[in-house]
Design a protein that fits this description.
Layout lengths: L6 H11 L8 E3 L1 H7 L2 E5 L10 H10 L3 H6 L1 E4 L3 H13 L3 E5 L5 H9 L3 E4 L4 H15 L2 E2 L6 H17 L5 E5 L4 H13 L4 E7 L4 H7 L21 H10 L2 E5 L1 H14 L10 H8 L1 H4 L3 E5 L7 H14 L3 E9 L4 H11 L3 E8 L9 E9 L3 H13 L3 E4 L1
Parallel strand pairs: 2-10, 3-4, 3-6, 4-5, 7-8, 7-10, 8-9
Antiparallel strand pairs: 1-2, 11-13, 11-14, 12-13
């Protein structure tokens, strides 16, 4: 199927979207640039009203409906950002919107989508079952199905952020774009290559969901079951988008879960901005493959900011462990009154803060009159942890990292 998205389609979409979606800021990050060795420009799509670029495609598709289609309304299948984009703009435009979500969808996403005035239908245990039900509803109720990515009007809407990016930073060398079903990269690559044929467009997928990589490169990477980048966890890429990716995208790369975690945390700490896993995929690629971006002017799209607070808490904590700012140590001491007080005094002397203490008498191989004390400490980093251990050892205790 030959996809006919053109620069003109995207420019027309941009004029339709004027005043309906936010023209998000595009800002250079000097700190990230220093870290990765490239000049990094960030496009803050996480600042859209529903915290995702998905609004662009949804809004463009809805504004193109005929009066008859508007009268019937729309149906979409999504457990995430697409649902909210369709629901919000349907509400703004006074259209009926039915959103089909799998039964396992977290309650907070269901409520948020209902909050935008959509009728939420929970159906099926998988996205495929939910999608099939959405198509059935489209047929039986005369609703227009709004596909999350495999639709030319949707992809053209997403491409509008490519126009904004190149207007803000005309001389970019490379764009690094997260890829799920491919709607975003299809639109952005069409716009970017038409305006600047020499620009390099690189797609990023998580190694747990490499569907587009497999489809385009003919590889057979196995598919996982879950990822922290659920926004790009797509089992099979779009037919329309796949054709554009083959034609216009220079390369596709894979990143691991750890790369994405690190990128989420860096954006939070350095840029003070919150992104979901998919929104951090571009930076994850720069962290994983610094050599291929060295010295280039790189545009990254922070495509969404809807992250579960518990997942974010886990990412922050794991990041602190990786950087040594949260450390677990074991101290062996004589089981006598005052032993714990001596340990805590020694830790205070060297500036470590105690977060948890576990006093272990029974489950230990030590002699009966000794005790193992496990501590979780807040420190300044790996060098500080080593300093803490040396100080404890200097005061006559046996201490090591767990």
């Amino acid at each position: 199927m030959l996809c006919m998205i053109t620069l003109q389609d995207i420019q027309d979409a941009a004029s339709r979207l004027q005043g309906q979606v936010l023209e998000t800021p595009c800002v250079e990050s000097r700190t990230l640039s220093q870290i990765v060795g490239a000049q990094v420009f960030l496009k803050f799509e996480n600042l859209q009203f529903t915290a995702s670029f998905k609004e662009r495609g949804a809004c463009n598709k809805l504004t193109l409906l005929t009066p008859e289609e508007r009268a019937h309304g729309v149906v979409a299948m999504s457990a995430g950002n697409h649902a909210q984009g369709v629901a919000y703009h349907a509400q703004r435009l006074g259209l009926r919107a039915v959103i089909v979500m799998p039964r396992f969808t977290p309650g907070v996403k269901v409520e948020r989508t209902r909050g935008f005035g959509a009728e939420v239908v929970l159906h099926g245990d998988t996205l495929e079952e939910a999608r099939a039900h959405a198509y059935r509803l489209a047929d039986t109720e005369g609703l227009v199905f709004v596909h999350p990515y495999d639709d030319e009007a949707v992809a053209a809407g997403q491409g509008t952020l490519g126009l904004e990016l190149l207007r803000a930073v005309p001389d970019l060398d490379t764009l690094v774009i997260a890829v799920g079903g491919g709607g975003l990269i299809a639109g952005v690559a069409t716009a970017a290559k038409a305006l600047r044929p020499a620009i390099e467009v690189i797609g990023v997928q998580t190694s747990r969901f490499p569907a587009m990589v497999n489809a385009v490169k003919g590889t057979h990477h196995p598919q996982g079951t879950s990822t922290i980048a659920e926004g790009i966890a797509v089992g099979s890429p779009g037919k329309i988008t796949q054709e554009v990716v083959k034609r216009l995208v220079d390369d596709l790369v894979l990143v691991d879960e750890g790369d994405i975690e690190q990128a989420v945390l860096m954006l939070l700490e350095i840029e003070k901005t919150l992104v979901e896993g998919a929104g951090a995929a571009g930076l994850a690629a720069l962290l994983r493959y610094p050599e291929r971006f060295k010295g280039k002017r790189v545009g990254l799209v922070l495509c969404g900011g809807n992250i579960d607070p518990l997942l974010l808490a886990a990412i922050i904590e794991r990041g602190m462990v990786r950087s040594g700012r949260l450390a677990r140590i074991r101290v062996s001491a004589r089981d006598v009154p005052g032993a714990l007080a001596r340990i805590t005094a020694a830790l205070a002397e060297v500036g470590a803060n105690i977060e948890e203490v576990h006093h272990q008498r029974a489950f230990t191989m030590l002699a009966a009159q000794n005790v193992d004390i496990e501590l979780v400490l807040q420190t300044r980093g790996h060098a500080h942890v080593d300093e803490v251990l040396r100080h404890l050892q200097a005061t006559g205790m046996t201490a090591n990292k767990v």
